[in-house]
Amino acid sequence: MRFGFALACALLLTSFTVSAEPVPELRVLSEHAVDGMRGGNLSGLAQCGKDLWTVSDRDDDQIYRLDTSASTWQAETVRIDVPPVPDTGLPWGLRSRNWAASFVRGGDLDFEGITCDSAGNRYIVSEGHAAVLQVPPTGPANWLKISPMMVREARARGMLLQFNAIFEGLAINPAGDQMWLAAERQSRGLLLIKRKQTVWDCDGHCVLLSEAGKEMQPPQFPKARAVDRDFSDLSLFDGKLFTLERNAYQICRRDPQTAKVERCWSYAAELLQENRRYSQNFGLEEALIIDADGAWIGVDNNFGPRVDGEVRPIVWRFAAPEGGWSAKP
After folding, report:
1. Of 239, 222, 236, 6, which is closest to residue 123 (Cα–Cα)?
2. Under a CB-based contact definition with an 8 Å cutoff, are residues 176 and 118 in contact?
3. Cross-sheet strand order for the sheet of 111-116
4. From which residue to which does the signal peptide run (predicted)?
5. Is the entire prediction scored with pTM above 0.90?
6. In the CATH scheme, what architecture does the domain 23-319 have?
7. For the residues of 45-108, what is the DSSP string, one character each?
């Protein structure tokens, strides 16, 4: 009996030790302030060919191409004419709160993520309306026709219930016929929809993951505490889905069909250095691109100054982890 109890304790301790293995730290290579964003609040990044694109959650009528030829990047305005937003099934109460908030902060659409397919189409997710805008290389912008089942299923699984906690990021495959969406928090989640003949719809089901609860901020965070688990952007690279998890200060590689975590990397040691800290009590990173050589991570600092006084949006370049993004633990 005692031997069995001791063996069970040993196995439990071994299990705990494995799960508590430190998350590898990523390394910053460069830092770039961004000038020229009317609304500030850089809230997404995408790479279309050789160009980097971004959006602000305060601007409804323009997106930005980034001139990266100098250390300080310049945001070049690209105007868009946005048609009326379709009914996505989001409740009137959430939509009305967003509408009211837009008079204070600006940005009724609340653009929170941008991605591109291989044809150069840009896709922008509106948190305020749980909708996705397609901006083709030429021609007018249009809202994707998405089945109301997506919002209905997400809400049934505990997502999209809180104001300002709807969709925070998206990713699309190169062919432009599969799209992943990240529900931000309370509960956070990942959804997958596929393009049918006329409508984007669930393939059996939309929700890959729904996850509530809290987790501790990294120890480098001043007065670290337990905060809501969240997603703040997505990136698809080499057949894997990468999630930006700003409250945990980490990037995680996930299976794109099941959302199961395969490996995570932390950026806390770099971005929580004294000279890079902001006064807000939570993570601020909202933009992610993963490529073979590393990662771009951008911050939405809500016009709040950094310790060194910098108020412009910042994008950091991180080196790829040792062994690359596909490396096993």
Report:
1. 236
2. yes
3. 111-116, 122-126, 131-135, 142-143
4. 1-20
5. yes
6. 5 Propeller (2.115)
7. EEEETTEEEEEETT-SSEEEEEE-SSSSEEEEEEE--PPPPPP-S--HHHHHHHHHHHHHHS-S
